[in-house]
Amino acid sequence: MVRKDWDTYFMDIAHMVSTRSRCPRRHVGSVLVQGKKLLGTAYNGAPMGVPDCSEDGCMISEEVEVVNVDGVETMVKKQRCIRTIHAEQNLLLFTDRADREGSVVYVTDEPCWTCANMLANSGIIEIVYYRPYPKDTRKVTAMMKQKGIIFRQLDHYNPPPDTTVIS
């Protein structure tokens, strides 16, 4: 058996963590790693003690954003559930700043704009993700470059069976 490389190992863990999510739309998991040491895990979901989407339904908020693509302004409609706390946000809530300094975050999905902003201020030096989130890719990528945070997608990664939910 071939030993997994570190990126695959930690992304597999992020996918396994995502299976704790009860979101019917998307399961997202994240892990915090310093060196080769796992410091924390988190997934998306409602605050503790509050009914989640599988119990009370999603709370969908719609937003419209104007984006400029090759000189053409286009309206982009974004839907998001406001009942859940994102995996990256939970990771930041449940880990210490001292542990985040110089660390890497592995997350199953490319961070949204809000999570990217929070991660950019968290002390981490790298974000590794699997699934793209095209609605925010341009501005998130630009900000990460500006901040000097390594931001990369695992292109040739295959998640463990039964860990991916997308509706």
UniProtKB/TrEMBL annotation:
Pfam families: dCMP_cyt_deam_1 (PF00383)
One cellular component (GO) term of this entry: cytoplasm
Required cofactor(s): Zn(2+)
PROSITE patterns from the UniProt entry: CYT_DCMP_DEAMINASES_1, CYT_DCMP_DEAMINASES_2
The keyword Nuclease belongs to this UniProt entry's keyword annotation: no
Tagged with keyword Secreted: no
Single GO MF descriptor: zinc ion binding
Residues that hold Zn(2+) according to the record: 86, 112, 115
Enzyme class, first EC level, given as a word: hydrolase
Ranges of residues in domain CMP/dCMP-type deaminase: 5-152
Keyword annotations from UniProtKB, A to Z: Hydrolase, Metal-binding, Zinc
UniProt-annotated catalytic positions: 88 (proton donor)
GO terms, biological process: pyrimidine nucleotide metabolic process
EC id: 3.5.4.12
Entry's family note: Belongs to the cytidine and deoxycytidylate deaminase family.
The protein's name: dCMP deaminase
Organism phylogeny: Bacteria, Bacillati, Bacillota, Bacilli, Bacillales
